[in-house]
What we know:
Shape of chain B: elongated
Strand order of the largest sheet of chain B: 6-7-8-3-9-10
Structural class of chain B: alpha+beta
Oligomer: heterodimer
CATH architecture of the largest domain in chain A: Orthogonal Bundle
CATH class of the largest domain in chain B: Alpha Beta
CATH superfamily of the largest domain in chain A: MetI-like
Bound molecules: adenosine-5'-triphosphate, magnesium ion
Structural class of chain A: mainly alpha
CATH topology of the largest domain in chain A: MetI-like fold
Number of strands of chain B: 20
Strand content of chain B: 25-35%
Largest sheet of chain B: 6 strands, mixed
Number of domains of chain A: 3
Helix content of chain B: 10-25%
Number of domains of chain B: 2
Distance between the termini of chain A: 35 Å
Amino acid sequence: MSAINSAHSVVEPSPTSKHIAGAIVILYALITMVPLAWIFLTSIKSPPDSISYPPKVLFSPTLEGYCNLFTTRTRQTPDYIAALPAPTSTCDEVTRKRNMVIAGPSNFLPRFVNSLVIAFGSTFLAVFLGTLAAYGFSRFKVPLADDLLFFILSTRMMPPIAVAIPIFLMYRELGLSDTALGMILLYTAVNVSLAVWLLKGFIDEIPREYEEAAMIDGYTRLQAFWKVVLPQATTGIAATAIFCLIFAWNEYAFAALLTSGSAQTAPPFIPTIIGEGGQDWPAVAAGTTIFLVPILVFTILLRKQLLRGITFGAVRK
Amino acid sequence: MAEIRIENLRKQFADFTAVQDSSFTVGDGEFLALLGPSGCGKTTTLRMIAGLELPTSGKIYLDGEDVTFNRASARDIAFVFQLFALYPHMNVRKNIGFPLLSQGLPKAEIKARVEETAKLLQISHILEKSVSGLAGGDRQRVALGRAIVRRPKCFLMDEPLGTLDAEFREVMVHELRELHNRIHATTVYVTHDQHEAMAMADKIAVMNHGIIEQFGTPQEIYNLPASMYVADFIGSPPMNFLKFTAGVQRGSRTVSVEGVEIALPEVHQDIAVGELALGVRPEHIRFNDSSALRGSVYGAEYLGTNQIVAVETGKGLLKARVPADHTFRIGETVGLELDSEKLSLFDCASGRAVKSSLYTEARHG
Ligand SMILES: Nc1ncnc2c1ncn2[C@@H]1O[C@H](COP(=O)(O)OP(=O)(O)OP(=O)(O)O)[C@@H](O)[C@H]1O
Ligand SMILES: [Mg+2]
């Protein structure tokens, strides 16, 4: 009995190798999480703590970074501040301790909203167009299909900075510079190649018989696509959406070059947060922390699909 | 219900001809089996009838109406795919009701028709189950349910039993035939299994390399094979051929197979001297020591009620199906007598059967 229990199975990894694998994964996770933890800790430090050397691990946390991120402030004399009515919020209080008063909201919130609109908008468009194109490539005889697919992929081979100048000039002529529409179109164009390639793999795996059955059962091809193919492609669509969203959300080069004002996204905005007498590191860290949240939430919500998306092709259904 | 008629149907994939000038008619309520080896164009023929593939040339008529270029959705046909193509994101009820949904029927009627269909197929108890967990036979029944729920003009089935194990296949063969007897839907059934075709079909079309070799009832196909190919494809073991070189005249009643005179049904055709083949089914061979046709026993296969005895005659190996009560020794010399009423004669050059009193011209194509 015990001999059977201790015998190694051919397919199951042994407990020892499982433990080793687990340890490696945990170690790797710790290494990658240290910078994130450091950013979060910095975001709740006071500006002097954030630049003290050696770095402080123990400190008294404060919301000053978040207050500074969302507001603009002006310096006042202690007498002026003393004469003000009692502070109405934590941020008022924190700011007054530094002999400053809140002058108004900062640009962070509009920049963050820009990021949301541009990233989700372009993701939606890229996935929508990518699904249709992938279905077409998968199911119909497209003339020069292989060349077209390669061309679509090749648009992703060039570093963005190589095409930045022509795009900058083109956008200026077209009046798309510093507009949300311009950024959505640009990110869609970049992402659609990824979307077509990923989704074609997923749709190729869905047998044609499903649509043929639906068409024989009285549906048009479009209805069959909508009712039979799409529901089975949801995994692929979710995985593709995450990849597209991560790209559009994190994109820095084009955003820095093409947006400067009303359409500026968060990535080029966050590093420009300047405090008194230099960079306001807690505010920058607070901006980064908040910036991480949407991707985190989206990824957690779709983590199953994402995993399958990464391993697609490796495991057959 | 309807009649399916195809005329000179042809399908070309690039320079490969998958189906060549096929013509046949499936009468209203008839069950046709398209039978042939893998790659002979059965599925392609079926897909053209369904409208999933457009023919290169030829016509398809449904109920007299030319539907050659109609969309699949406009033909009112049901198709059962080999792998069933049950929608994995829907449960059994939704799968069966899906064709009705496209017709915009009221919910209550869909529900009633789905339940009626489920009852007919005895799958009422699994209506709410997910299709992905179903056993092969139940998947099969759900696929059938999705086909019959719409009461279409006709059914097309592409090897629907291909994935089931042998034991269950037999059960389903009976179920399918019984279902057909009850609803009398015009059916075209594709299979490469002669037993399925024989057991179920009213008519069989035997295909080979895109050509319909013979179209007829199972009895005609078996007893009066129109070509050596059909004779060899049908029956297990298949028809024996005794090859010899001779010519035959209209009215002959015997042929001389290398010196042995063998009686056969009256020949109705003149054939110039050439290679001919006498075709005889294993069950039409008897052992008779006084017979002039002799050979030595090569092997015997015991099958319980009977046995298959292989005899080397010098003109080819003959397999005889005889009662199991006699034991043969390997190498033993035996005399063979052929049932002269049941013999077929083939012209080896064309592979076609020679017309005779057994084969009247009207009965084979
Ligand atoms: N879309 C296609 N393009 C090119 N050739 C095809 C296509 N569809 C079928 N063929 C070829 O046509 C021939 C007939 O195919 P078909 O599927 O009709 O055979 P089948 O009789 O159904 O065989 P099986 O028993 O294997 O299903 C095959 O040789 C196949 O390779
Ligand atoms: Mg086939």
